[in-house]
Amino acid sequence: MKTVFFTDLDNTMIYSCRHDVGRDKLCVEIYQGREVSFITTETWELLRRVREQTLLIPVTTRTKEQYNRIDLRIGTPEFALVCNGGILLEDGREDSAWYQESRALISDCQEELKTAQLLMEQDRNRSFEVRNIRELFLFTKSEKPDNSVKYLESRLDKERVGVFQNGVKVYVLPRKLSKGAAIQRLLNKLKRERKEAGTVIAAGDSEFDISMLQRAELPFAPAALKHACELPARTVIVEDNELFSEAVLKNILNRVGKIA
Known about the structure:
Elements: E1 3-7, E2 15-16, E3 25-31, E4 34-40, H1 41-53, E5 54-58, H2 64-68, E6 79-82, E7 87-90, E8 93-94, H3 96-105, H4 110-122, E9 131-133, E10 137-141, H5 145-153, E11 161-166, E12 169-174, H6 179-194, E13 200-203, H7 210-215, E14 218-222, H8 223-228, E15 236-238, H9 244-259
Parallel strand pairs: 1-5, 1-13, 13-14, 14-15
Antiparallel strand pairs: 2-4, 3-4, 6-7, 7-8, 9-10, 10-12, 11-12
Helix pairs in contact: 1-9
């Protein structure tokens, strides 16, 4: 099997319109008639080359609908993990057995998620509706996300669920529904079906990605994440003066021949 490259999308390979990546860029997402996400031209060219030499698998907390808005202009990946790994897309089609297995894995968290939803709805700092994403996890927005996270963490069973913040967004996810657990499930599936294993590379920029980086033999993270979270000692850190997407892909291309 080829080297496997698991990559987060937002702020890892693509950037929102609020992030200045220069003028040499391509739109990869349109929402409600607006161009909302971009990829630099160099990232796109590097990504095409990396895809030729690795099994490239996007891994995102986005829903399937949000993921499907993205067009990286490199064709449909053979596999993609969305909803933080709760849903597997194979050639763009949802694997129903994977979803049912995800639901079974988090069956012991359903009562805690119900409690979390009530708490989120009662949170005075909440500025958006509380969404239950495919009965996998919860999402909302807060005017004071730090306060909302503390409020939830003080009232929920942290052994069963985790509370995460990404800007103004606040999430409650079952501990078992992590990107790290999802990529391990997919690697096991690939080993069963293809009878071989390849080196695992991963790239991510947020707390959601830590468990994925921990499972990789070659993980990449930006310097900002190193300052905020504990990363595996083997992590390749990309400094702030480099665009994360371009630095990661160049590094992979330099290493992939040595890995193979």
